[in-house]
Amino acid sequence: MTHFIKVDTSNVEAETGAPAPDRIVSGTPTFRTWNVEETAAGIYAGVWEATPGKWRITYDEWEFCHILGGVSVLTEDGGEARTMRAGDSFVLRPGFNGTWEVLETTRKEYVIHLPVASG
């Protein structure tokens, strides 16, 4: 088993999806996700893409994002709107609530860490 994984989506089939209908604020956004890493410990990594639209987001997880292309605006409830473009990186922490608006189809690399349930 190797401990190195290249983020390469060429041999990964995209999963498709969309925000839950009750979360959509505007538009008809759709998602494509290429997971290259998924562990029982709640770690996910890969590439995600979304088409234009705006929806509400709520984070229980920790996520690192690096924008590869497109333009999106993230707005935390009660906070300022932040425009993200190719080359921008950011972290969303558990407890982030707000909106994600895709102005131009956006593609990002991500690493997600889900909280571990205590037993």
From TrEMBL:
Pfam families: Cupin_3
PANTHER family registered for this protein in UniProt: (S)-UREIDOGLYCINE AMINOHYDROLASE CUPIN DOMAIN-CONTAINING PROTEIN, CYTOPLASMIC PROTEIN-RELATED
CDD domains per record: cupin_TM1112-like
Domain of life: Bacteria
Domain (S)-ureidoglycine aminohydrolase cupin: 42-110
InterPro entries: RmlC-like_jellyroll (IPR014710), RmlC_Cupin_sf (IPR011051), UGlyAH_Cupin_dom (IPR008579)
Protein's name in the database: Cupin domain-containing protein
